[in-house]
């Protein structure tokens, strides 16, 4: 009998949980067994959560904002002279935009294995520092080939961020806190867009009035790249690998921080690769629905994130205006992600709540597509509405933290999800064909179709999780069912653990 089959009547839990080996359990089990008995009062938990938020969330938020800003810097540079100075023609710019995700794709699987095998914060810090330095190298690009090479390495080093941050979130927060926290740090994509537009505009205007020995787009890459590398050094100093080496917590608080996530049925980490968990990830319908969403929904993301400045110019605004007019789109993303993250946790239904952002985005792209050139303000409002589109992507990213258990399975699923994300983002810029400029009407229609298909996929995931919860409830109701002591920390997968309940 497989670990995911229901037990026969009277069968013990031990017979079902054939992988429940205390010698190969989560790191948290050894901490709980070795430490004193911890009783958490509601006041203790609130105080501890505030302390965790003060240290963990700023690190995640700032770095994730830079993650978005660094990879979309090329969009600002594209209207600051980068395309002319590197002699780009035809689809060259689209391929430079896509090349980032080839690097991301090439290193996604290795970096996820290293996130499990190496100290989580230290490996993440190394990648942050390196991608900041690589971004600086964009300033030296003078040809299509050199820009392609640098963008590949930029994607390679940035591939550790999203899966790493999903692991940090599942490590430190309970299932009812993860949606809002993931939405909050992911919302700094929007802040990256707001701040990036302001920096690009300031550099463009400043260098025009006071010319320097380098071009404005070169200065943009240098300023943002060096700042990112400096933040990476701070991340290395501040961010703990897990609760056990958190310098900002006392010894007792470290035990409390582990105890409070017992409800997740997941633990804080296991460094051993388990083949059965890998196989389960590869055969789980929910996982493939996640991957399908990432692929289809990120075709629009790949196009819009690299062409938004050029789209705004096509509405009838000039290049400098477009740098500023892109900023409110970031504000829409921030608000949509924070509200959807909070509401999803509050109503215990992230999947249905997150579809609101997708519906707004579909409406926005219909405005951009259907309005004529005499309604440039309406088109601009439509573009702003499209910036609510990341809400389902973030909800699913948080559900990898919440609904996927077993550390080998979790890191495998994170890699698969982000491989889908990469493929979608590689395709996205290619639907913006140079021959369709400046309107890019076929690309806009493609984006609408992708978002409608993505909406159907979210509804399938919602149905699947509900049906699996009913099956698990039936297993727990069987006569003779016994829960193993410490089962939460045995590094079991979501499908084999009868106590595991899928969050909606």
From TrEMBL:
Topological relation to the membrane, as annotated: Multi-pass membrane protein
GO cellular component, one term: membrane
Location within or outside the cell: Membrane
Top-level taxonomic group: Eukaryota
Keywords of the record: Membrane, Transmembrane, Transmembrane helix, Transport
Domain Major facilitator superfamily (MFS) profile per the UniProt entry, residue ranges: 56-469
GO molecular function: transmembrane transporter activity
SUPFAM superfamilies assigned: MFS general substrate transporter
Transmembrane segments: 93-111, 123-141, 153-173, 185-207, 219-239, 286-311, 323-344, 350-371, 383-402, 414-433, 445-464
Family: Belongs to the major facilitator superfamily. Allantoate permease family.
Name under which the protein is recorded: Major facilitator superfamily transporter allantoate
Species of provenance: Coniochaeta ligniaria NRRL 30616
């Amino acid at each position: 009998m497989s670990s995911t089959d229901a037990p026969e009547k009277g069968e013990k839990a031990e017979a079902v949980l054939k992988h429940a080996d205390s010698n190969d359990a989560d790191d948290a089990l050894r901490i709980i067994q070795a430490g004193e008995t911890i009783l958490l009062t509601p006041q203790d938990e609130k105080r501890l959560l505030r302390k965790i938020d003060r240290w963990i969330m700023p690190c995640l938020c700032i770095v994730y904002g830079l993650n978005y800003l660094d990879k979309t810097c090329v969009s600002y540079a594209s209207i600051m002279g980068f395309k002319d100075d590197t002699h780009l023609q035809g689809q060259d710019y689209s391929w430079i935009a896509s090349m980032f995700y080839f690097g991301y794709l090439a290193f996604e699987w290795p970096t996820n294995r290293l996130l499990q095998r190496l100290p989580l914060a230290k490996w993440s810090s190394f990648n942050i520092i390196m991608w900041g330095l690589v971004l600086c190298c964009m300033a030296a690009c003078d040809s299509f080939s050199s820009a392609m090479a640098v963008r590949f390495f930029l994607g390679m080093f940035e591939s550790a961020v999203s899966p790493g941050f999903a692991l940090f979130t599942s490590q430190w927060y309970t299932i009812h806190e993860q949606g809002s926290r993931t939405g909050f740090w992911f919302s700094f994509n929007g802040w990256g867009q707001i701040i990036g537009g302001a920096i690009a505009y300031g550099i463009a205007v400043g260098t025009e009035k006071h010319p320097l020995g380098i071009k404005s787009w070169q200065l943009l890459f240098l300023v943002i790249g060096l700042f990112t590398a400096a933040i990476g050094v701070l991340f290395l100093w501040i961010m703990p690998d897990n609760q056990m080496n958190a310098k900002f917590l006392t010894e007792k608080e470290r035990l409390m921080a582990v105890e409070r996530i017992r409800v997740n049925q997941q633990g804080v980490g296991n460094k051993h690769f388990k083949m059965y968990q890998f196989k389960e990830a590869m055969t789980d319908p929910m996982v493939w629905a996640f991957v399908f969403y990432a692929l289809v929904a990120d075709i629009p993301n790949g196009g819009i994130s690299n062409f938004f400045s050029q789209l705004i110019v096509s509405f009838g605004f000039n290049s400098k205006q477009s740098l500023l007019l892109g900023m409110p789109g970031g504000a829409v993303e921030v608000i949509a992600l924070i509200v959807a993250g909070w509401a999803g946790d509050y109503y215990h239904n992230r999947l249905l709540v997150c579809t609101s952002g997708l519906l707004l985005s579909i409406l926005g792209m219909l405005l951009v597509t259907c309005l004529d050139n005499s309604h440039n303000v309406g088109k601009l409002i439509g573009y702003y509405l499209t910036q609510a589109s990341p809400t389902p992507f973030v909800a699913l990213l948080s559900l990898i933290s919440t609904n996927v258990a077993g550390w080998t399975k979790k890191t495998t699923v994170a890699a698969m999800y982000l491989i889908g994300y990469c493929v979608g983002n590689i395709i996205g810029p290619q639907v913006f064909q140079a021959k369709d400029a400046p309107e890019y009407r076929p690309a806009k229609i493609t984006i609408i179709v992708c978002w409608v298909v993505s909406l159907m996929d979210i509804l399938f995931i919602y149905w699947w999780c509900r049906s699996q919860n009913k099956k698990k409830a039936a297993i727990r109701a069987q006569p003779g069912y016994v829960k193993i002591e410490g089962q939460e920390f045995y590094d079991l997968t979501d499908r084999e653990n009868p106590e595991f309940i899928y969050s909606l």
